[in-house]
Amino acid sequence: xxxxxxxxxxxxxxxxxxxxxxKISEVSxxxxxxxxxxxxxxxxxxxxxxxxxxxxxxxxLLEKDNKIKELEDRLKRDSELxxxxxxxxxxxxxxxxxxRYCLKCHTEGKYIPLQVEDRRFxxxxxxxxxxxxxxxxxxxxxxxxxxxxx
Length: 150
Prior knowledge:
By secondary structure, the protein is α+β, with helices and mostly antiparallel strands.
């Protein structure tokens, strides 16, 4: 009977070993699942970071496209302007009339039409004033005529 007891004890030991192996396998599966979930979470985080970086790149490209468009527009407008040396301003002809632009504002990329006054042109944006030489020539001519007539 001792051998039966030994066999039963061996069976019990084997059963216990099998149960422990099953539990280890279950724990191993749980660990694998946890590791897989961690790797999946890391992958999702990396994809979210990549998406944010692509959005940033998209914003930068959009800014660059807008800047290029702005510079192309400015280049087109500048090609239509001529510099009037008498007045020291840029001007263009629109529908048969000259439109003059503030030189100071133009250097800042702004196209501000000048307000025409009797003796000068004035910028309503920066208050820069430009003298009208024909007005002063007319005054000088009148003075010379008055001197001659005296």
